[in-house]
Design a protein that fits this description.
The structure holds 2 protein chains of 2 kinds. By secondary structure, chain A is mainly α. In chain A, 73% of the residues lie in helices and 0% in strands. In chain B, helix 8 packs antiparallel against helix 10 (353-362) and helix 14 (463-474) runs antiparallel to helix 15 (478-495). Classes of the chains: A mainly alpha, B alpha+beta. Chain A: This is Diguanylate cyclase.
Chain lengths: 317, 537
């Protein structure tokens, strides 16, 4: 893996981001409504006042002009100001990034810790009761809507048992490790559920493919134990297809989990996105979506590099 | 749901009986005692604690920051930091001899302290005007700053505001929103000040913690100026916590688990769930907002009073109300019944399909082969606009379309959003439009139906109505205003530029232990009078 390759990929991301920004800008302006809608019910806000606010934020310009103005400031590192809070977009994002990384990071760790063993066991005991159970559970995990799962957990652990707080980042006046842990458990569990389910499926199918290869039979023939064959010979190759999915999921961590964060009142990026969407806060939305896109592009580059690391036959030059 | 409500109503009846019996005892069942924490769940994120720049109605702000006056539960102003509401009668308002300008004198309350212990004085009032007027300060509302010519502060407890015009709505502007502390803010940049998170106010509660996106903690201000009637130091509550929970399902779960004990805006659709939670009760509070159907007078058939009358007769408000969970209430005047200006004798047009058909027949509108009426080649077929994407409004629109069809009038949904909606609404890009308006506690109606009114996109003009509005809006004399209000409500009901349909209500869910809570209908929120709320037991 050469440094030159990485630099070329990063340079290639620039036109990609430009294209993405153009598409996103067009789409959010196509959506019904605008940032000034919240004033429409109140007659005390006259048309003149609305026009004035629109001018202040450049909303009176044609959309293409607005796009170029946005792009121009973005190129010099000015992310603009949120229409909803009046604070700089970047300040707002940085403030929300911490909780999002905590939640996303924890849920990815849980997912990795559970999905890999589940996938391996499921593949190596193909057709067994265990495999069937894991497969069924995975499909259930993928199918259950996040908000519903969240509601079930909240009703059980917060209302029935009273063990865990139903939402929030920390208690008022609290915030020590245990308090934070009690708040993050449910959202992290909900968020992990779908990832565990999908990752374990990918690892299982990768594993099933590899376990049928000749070199695995050779390894068995050499008299190696099953554990050694699976972990040392098979796993590495089986991971290649799964790496793409895992890497992209890592990339999406910084764009936050919109529904989970909203349901659990988690003060992260996803909830900020939801609220900005409600208020049609264009500068904020653009900032958030560009950051999310960047995350996914970077994750893809990392995934490609990981292929080469996992499989020496893959070379980039 | 109906069963549950009925059962609850029966229970409440029994409770009322019980209360009547306790009244015979020598001691009250519950004494007001200090203590207790109220945890309020808000569905929006508090953007700033500065009352002049927040984009929301300012729930948390109202418990912390006080103005000279505040609207009470009947939308009438009561004195807060001033000792009385200035009027012509008490000499607080003096109109210049030429009748073009006025001067308002506020006597300030003595012994009021800011949360940092400094005394509150007339200099703070003057500073508030200067700070909000400053063009560098980005504010959502600068209402009332331009009409003030100058402010005199002859002593610490007297403020004389010289207006460059007559402004009968002075009470719903500037000094009512809140007073800013001069000693803290002078010389700072209000746009970026820490005041926006931890404001210094004079209110019964002070902010002790502001965590963006999570919660705001307010605690009892021990040196608050007000005492209860029995001499108790106010406020009673130890603390009010405002938690920001964007998802309404989670909010209801938190009510269930006791993590929040008050929700001020329960969605109509979730009221029945909340009704079933032990220890939580729903208080139905009136609001100054109403739903209405308006006509564009550029359309020749809609300029015909007979057609407007038939449409008014053709609409069954009960169906509209049922479609919204049964909570809004039918109205006949745009002046909602909370106001003293409301005239109960406003003529009412009852729902009467046959009457509507007969009226249209008599006016010469005859049904064509498709069932749609027409006269002289003008079909009664209209473009009907609501703001696209607002589910409640789109539902109401469908109800109205069906009801119009029954009397031979065709309406086609043509919904817009954003700039397109705004342009259409202000410039009359519709035949029929359905929407909601809200007024302040000092309502002004000429903006809607006055000739050339800022929100009059209907091209409606009626000199007699303009005259009544002018009398209402330019007089400081209550008797004159009452008379004028009656007059314009009658004209509106007879000439029908707009059909007032229903008011909206606030559904406030709160712990039954919280006593002396009184909902506030105005856009100053329920938290303007928190000092006397107390927790039982």
């Amino acid at each position: 893996m050469s440094l030159g390759y990485v630099i070329r990929r990063l340079l290639g991301a620039i036109p990609l981001l430009l294209g993405i920004s153009l598409i996103l800008f067009t789409i959010i302006h196509l959506a019904p409504g605008g940032p000034l809608d919240m004033y429409l019910e109140n007659p005390a806000v006259s048309k003149e006042a609305l026009d004035q606010i629109a001018r202040a934020y450049g909303l009176d310009q044609p959309v293409p002009v607005q796009y170029f103005l946005w792009l121009k400031s973005m190129l010099v590192g000015d992310w603009g100001y949120s229409i909803r809070t009046g604070r700089p977009v970047l300040t707002e994002i940085v403030l929300r990034l911490g909780p999002t990384l905590e939640l996303g990071g924890l849920s990815l760790l849980i997912s990795l810790a559970l999905a890999i063993p589940l996938g391996i066991i499921s593949a190596s005991r193909r057709g067994s009761k265990l495999d069937t159970t894991v497969t069924l559970a995975s499909f259930a995990g993928i199918s259950i809507p996040v908000f519903w799962m969240a509601l079930l957990l909240q009703l059980f652990f917060s209302v029935q048992l009273g063990w865990l707080p139903s939402a929030g980042y920390k208690s008022i006046g609290g915030g020590d490790f245990l308090d934070r842990l009690s708040h993050i458990v449910m959202p992290a569990a909900v968020l992990s559920l779908a990832t565990i389910a999908s990752w374990s499926r990918f690892i299982r199918s990768g594993m099933v493919d590899v376990l049928n290869q000749d070199y695995i039979r050779t390894a068995y023939a050499k008299g190696r134990s099953e554990r050694a064959v699976v972990v040392l010979h098979a796993l590495r190759n089986a991971m290649i297809p799964a790496v793409t999915v895992i890497a992209v999921d890592f990339g999406t961590v910084i764009s936050g989990a919109v529904i989970t964060e909203t349901v659990f009142a988690w003060p992260g990026i996803g909830r900020l996105f939801m609220e900005s969407m409600d208020g049609r806060d264009y500068p904020m939305l653009m900032g958030l979506m560009m950051m999310g896109s960047l995350g996914i592009i970077l994750a893809n580059i990392v995934a490609d590099l990981a292929y080469a690391a996992l499989d020496p036959r893959i070379r980039y030059g | 749901m109906t069963f549950k409500l009925t059962r609850r109503a029966a229970l409440q009846g029994m409770l009322a009986g019980g209360v009547a019996m306790t009244a015979f005892r020598a001691f009250p069942a519950y004494a007001q005692a200090p203590g207790g924490t109220l945890t309020v769940g808000l569905t929006y994120e508090i953007d700033t604690m500065n009352v002049y720049s927040t984009g929301f109605l300012g729930d948390a702000q109202a418990a912390v920051v006080e103005g000279l006056l505040a609207p009470g539960s009947d939308a009438k102003y009561v004195p807060v930091l001033a000792t009385e509401v200035p009027t012509l009668e008490n000499g607080g308002i003096v109109v210049a001899e030429d009748g073009k300008t006025m001067k308002i004198t506020y006597k300030l309350r003595e012994g009021v302290k800011w949360h940092d212990g400094e005394p509150f004085t007339s200099a703070d009032v003057k500073y508030t005007w200067e700070a909000v007027k400053d063009p560098a300060f980005i504010a959502e509302s600068k209402d009332g700053t331009e009409e003030v010519e100058s402010i005199e502060t002859p002593d610490d407890l007297t403020v004389i505001v010289n207006y460059n015009t007559i402004l009968p709505t002075f009470a719903s502007t500037l000094f009512t929103f809140g007073i800013l502390p001069k000693h803290v803010l002078e010389g700072t940049d209000l746009n970026t000040s820490t005041y926006n998170e931890t404001p210094i106010g004079t209110g019964p509660f002070k902010v002790t913690e502001f965590v963006r996106g999570q919660y705001v903690v307010t605690e009892r201000f021990d040196e608050y100026w007000d005492k209860a009637e029995n001499g108790d130091q106010l406020p009673y509550l130890d603390s009010i916590i405002f938690k920001m929970i964007p998802d309404t399902n989670t909010l209801i779960t938190q009510l269930r688990s006791g993590e929040v004990t008050m929700v001020v805006s329960t969605p109509y659709s979730q009221a029945s769930q909340v009704e079933g939670i032990d220890g939580i009760e729903i208080v139905k509070g009136p609001l100054l907002s109403w739903q209405h159907l308006d006509f564009n007078f550029k359309n020749p058939t809609l300029a015909d009073l007979e057609v407007r009358k038939a449409i008014a007769m053709g609409i069954d408000r009960n169906v509209l109300i049922r479609a919204q969970g049964g909570f809004p209430e039918a109205i006949k005047s745009p002046v909602v019944p909370v106001f003293e200006w409301y005239d109960a004798e406003t003529p009412e047009i009852a729902y009467d399909v046959e009457g509507a058909k007969a009226a249209l027949d008599a006016a010469g509108y005859v049904a064509g082969s498709d069932g749609i009426r027409e006269k002289d080649g003008n079909r009664l077929s209209y473009q009907f606009m609501v703001q696209a994407g607002r589910a409640d409004d789109e539902l109401a629109q469908q109800v109205i379309i069906a009801q119009l069809k029954a009397i031979g009038i065709e309406a086609t949904a043509n919904n817009q959003t954003g700039v397109a909606y705004r342009e259409a609404r202000y410039n009359g890009g519709y035949d029929l439009i359905y929407g909601r308006w809200i007024t302040s506690a000092d309502p002004v109606y000429s903006v809607f139906w006055g000739t050339g009114g800022a929100n009059n996109g209907q091209s409606y003009s009626n000199p007699k109505l303009d005259e009544a509005f002018a009398k209402f809006e330019n007089s400081l004399d209550t008797a004159v205003r009452m008379e004028a209000a009656k007059e314009f409500q009658t004209i509106l009901a007879e000439d029908l530029p707009s059909i007032p349909l229903t008011t909206n209500v606030a559904l406030i869910a709160k712990t039954a232990k919280l006593k002396d809570f009184v909902p506030n209908p105005t856009n100053m929120t329920n938290f303007v009078h928190t000092a006397e709320w107390y927790m039982e037991g």
